[in-house]
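From the pipeline queue, job 12 of 40. The input is one protein chain; the requested action is below.

Action: predict structure.
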Amino acid sequence: MNMKKLASIITAMTIFAGSAFADEGMWLLPLLEKMNAKAMKELGCELTPKQIYDINNTSLKDAIVQFGGGCTGEIISSEGLLVTNHHCGYGNIQKLSSVEHDYLKDGYWAMNRSEELPCEGLSVTFLEYMQDVTGILEKAEKKARKEFKDDEEKVMEAVNLAAEELIGKAEKDNPYCTVDIQSFYDSNVYYLIVYKTYRDIRFVGAPPSSIGKFGADTDNWMWPRHTGDFSMFRVYADKDNNPAEYSPENVPLKAKNHLKISLAGVQEGDYTMIMGYPGRTTRFQTSPELKFQIEQNDIRIAARTIRQDVMLEDMLADPKVKIQYASKYSGSSNGWKKWQGMKLAFDKLNIIGRAEQEEAEFQKWVNANKKRTEKYGTAVKDLANGIEAGREANNAFTKAYETVYNIELTRFGINLDRLAQREIRNGKDTVAALLSAYEAIAPQYGDYSVGTDRKVAKALMKHYRDIAEPANYLKNIPEDFATMDIDAFVNCLFDNSVLTSAETLKAAIEAKGADVLNDPAVKVGMSIYNECLQAQMLTMQSSQDLAKARQVYTAGLLEWKDGEPSYPDANFTMRYTYGTVGGYSPKDAVVYKHYTTLDGVMEKEDPDNWEFVVPEKLKELWKNGDYGQYANEDGEMVTCFLSNNDITGGNSGSPIMNARGELIGLAFDGNWESMSSDVMFEPDLQRCINVDIRYVLFIVDKFGGAKWLIDEMDIVR
């Protein structure tokens, strides 16, 4: 930290320049009044910043949750009813499914509270408040430097102690809450954040995947879109409305706030706002960092293509495998397709060239002033050097992680060994430690097909051999790895391991005890783990150097752009983004309008393609025009619409609201033409794809027959 540097950052953060694009930015809630209020009002917002975020009174933020640690959801009734994306609930729906009760394939609707299904391990988190503590930590650092001079270890100890004191006080003042301090603007600003997490979450309903995942991989990141991407859950609490572990005695949460739902629909140019938990953006990156990102993505794309092809073949051939691997495949393919789009967007939009131009302009500004040169003169060069220093080790890690680390059998071996060794260090005998480790990993076998994994292992080991440097080959496999018969090696590994099922593993522990740690899956698994760990260790110094250089560079950028609105990179904290409804033109002579309808679902229907199967009941409702109160003024059943709100991964499931804060849809995707958006915002091309809330309610009511849920909501026109 640096006090003088902080002063310039705060100045840059608190001055609003109306010339910036209103649709760009993932804004910090406590700064809306200072930075965004005027622009929001001019664009059409009817709410004050206090109505959006207020720590003393109920506000919109009280209806928004982080769902499952990686998505966003929103409360839509006073009794804890929650809606998020289908793909956000996908893993939990998969866990609840079986061949006999396939909720992914068939959908599910609870028809009363007793039919709501507990979701083991699922939680939702509410934001209580955020507090800027930068000044407090800076003061602690200044005092420590005066006392300890250049002893960096003691200085950091003093700063960490100040942080711990802040956290301890906040925890004491906020029972049932967790407290964290997170950095923003590349460790130039710090906020203390108080959260409340509920862990009794129950599955209420979702459409079949033929609606909730309509278009699947083909339509992912694409427009026009027709996916009914939603699922519903309910938050439960103890009798005093406090967080509690699952219990039949728990009751639906008495929500502090919930969103009203609008049936008015959207028109081009309407004000829109989104609140949610965007995951990671890197909009302060330099050109060397961007080039290396593409290099890393190429490694990931190639490996995932191989793995996904094997998984999909088995999933289409076996309904059981389809359930077991549905969430794994979906999680892998989402990033896989995004990275491909990112590479295309980088080339088409000259992202790296534009970054190089900005760096040159920044360096020119730095060099024009002696003080600036002293502070920021080597920042760009230091970042480039840091990337180069860590390139080889980072690539070695990514190659191993994306290939051999994704062999599930050996990952069982890794987890068994690491968990058991930890228990042994804590004083347990080996057998007891192994049994404890077994209990931890046994549930994972429910989503495991040994046949599929064997095929994946053969394909990935061959690929790893093709791409890895010989010096990085796994250390605990035959020395002739470069020439050996990998099919034979994998068959031997699987045929001789007791980790191929939960039953054989438990029996082996009880019969052989410590000898299980010599299982070939454990030996090869730990070889993979150690290879990845070694590569990570080699990157530590370069990562630390990069972090320091990045802190300096970001501080310099903020000072350089003093007077412009500034938002930090996304980091899974709640953000606010605002914009308008609108279509776009992806290329010459092509114009996309801002919404799609159910007619488009029928146009895409292909009974022979699992991605585009349409349920008979949905076709019947469409043929009869039986849309109830959910059709637009022209009698159309709107499915999805576009806005120019600035979002990224983690925003999935976020509410998109109108100017009055009423729910009009759920954000679920970005468009293919702006896959570079995590590093650079493109106002003419970047769009947020939203499922229209009227389509959500239509599916719940007319398709699912769960009108009791509709009756629970506050619906306005």
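Job complete. The first helix runs from residue 3 to 14.
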